[in-house]
Amino acid sequence: MKRFLLIISAVLISYSVCAQQTRKVTRTFFPNPEIEFGTPAFNKKHGFTTYKEMMDYLYGLSTAYHDRMSFKIVGRSQEGVDIPMIKISKGGDVNKLRVLYTGCVHGNEPAGTEGLLYFIKQLLSDKKLTSLLDSIDFYIIPMVNVDGHEDGERFTSNGIDLNRDQTMLSTPEARMMHRVASSVSPHVYVDFHEYKPLRASYEEVSDGALVTNPNDFMFLWSSNPNVSSGLRNVVERLYVSEASSMAKQEGLVHTTYFTTKNNRGEVVFNIGGSSPRSSSNIMALRGMVSMLVEIRGVGLGRTSYKRRVYTVYKLAESFAQTTYRNGSEIRKVVKMAMNEMKDIVVKFKSKAQSDYPLTFIDMLSCKKIELLVEARIAQNSEVMLERTRPKGYYLNASESKAADILRAFGVVVEEIKEPVSLELETYSVTSMTESHEFVAGILPLNVNAETKMEKVNLDKGSYYVSMSQPLATLIAILLEPESANGFVNYRVIGVDSDGNIGLYRNVK
After folding, report:
1. N or C: which end of the chain has fewer CB within 10 A?
2. Which residue stretches of 251-304 are H helix?
3. What is the pTM of this model?
4. How far apart are the first and last CA of the chain?
C-alpha cells in the first residue's frame, strides 16, 4: 500500500511540474471569471493572439473609433517587424495627464497583450471608462517584444532579456521604449508581465513539499533610494492601495513581488526591487510614477487564461481610475521629482530578514500553507556609499558608446570643440571583481573607487553631460562607477590597467 501511494504521489508531482497547476488547484483557487472578451485569443480554442491577429484587431478598432484612436509605428524589432503604439485621446487640452502601458516585454508572457487589447476596446466603447479621456491621454504598446512573442520565447531575437537591458539599451526594442518615454513624457507608466508560479527553489524551503505561488498578481514598484520619495509614496499610498481594494472585491489574491536567488547554497527571497536594469525602476528614475505588475501565468498555457487576462484588464482600469481621481497630486509629485537635487546614492543593499512569512499552495493537499524564509527587503535599503551631486560629468573622446547610450535615453550630451584643461574630480579604482553570472550577455564588473581633484587634459571630441537637465538622477546612476547596472558595471566604460576611468566629475 505504501509503495502504491508513493507511486501515485510521484505521478502527481510529475504531472504538476509539467502542467504547473493541477486541475484541483485551478478549480479551488483560480477559476475563470464569467466574461466574454472578444479579443483574438478568445475567438479560437488554442494558442494566443498572434502578431497578425493583434494588428488586424487594432486596425479594426482604429477604423471604428478613428476620432479617438490613432495608430503609430514607434520602432522595429530585430527581425524588422513594426512595433505599434496606440494613442487614445479626445484631444482638446494639450496639458492632459499622460499614461503609458506596455505589455509582452517578455515574449512568453501573453496575458499583458491580451488584457491591454481588451482595455483599449473598453476605453473606446464603455461609457464608464470613456469619461477618463476628459483628463487623460493613453499610450499603449501591447506587444513590445514582437519577435519573442512569435517564437514563444522570453528573450528578444538575439537572446537578450529586455528587462535586463534597461541601462545598456543594447536592443532596438529597449531603445524604442526610451524613445517613447522621451517623446510621450508620461506621468504614469505601468509594465504588465507574467511570472512562473512553480519553482524548484520553493521545494528547498518547504521540506520537499511541492508548493506554488498563490498570487494572481504581484506588485513591483521602485525601492531604489535615488527615486524621488514622492513618487514612491504615491505609488504605495494611492495605486497599490486602490488596486488592493479592487482585488479584494474581485476575489484576486496579491502580494509584493518576490523572487528567489541562490546565495552560497541558501535560497534567499528578494522582496520588491530596486535594480535600474528593469523597467519599473528605470522609468521611476526618469521621474514618473512607475510600476510593474507580475500576473500568475508563465508555464500555464491556456489554463486560467481568462482569469489572467481579466486581472490585467482590472489592474489597467484601476490604475487609470486612480490617475483620474488624483490628477493634481500626480502632476505635483512628477514635477517635484524632475526638479529634485539630492545627493546620489551610489551603493546600497537590501536589509536581511530571517523568518519572513510567505504564503504558498501545497499542490498535493490543495491547501494554503505559510513558510518562513530568509529574505532581503528592497524597501528597507541600507545606504553604503553616497556622493554629492556634481554639476556635470566629462567623458573622454574614446567613450563614444557611453555618449550614444545616454543620447538614446534622451540625455543632452555636448561635444567639446577644442582641447581644454580643467580641475576635475577623477576616479581611481581600488578593487574590482568580475561577476559569475551573465547579464544581457556580459559579465558585470563590480568596482570600488576613490575620488580626488586633479588637472585633467580633455581632447577635442570629449563629452560633457550637464546635470542641469531633466534626467540628471538617471545620468548619475549610469555614470558613477560603483553603481549596479551602470556603465562601468556593464563594461560600457572601461577601467585601464592602472585603475583609471575616462570619466570625471565637475564639482566646481
Report:
1. N
2. 279-285
3. 0.95
4. 81
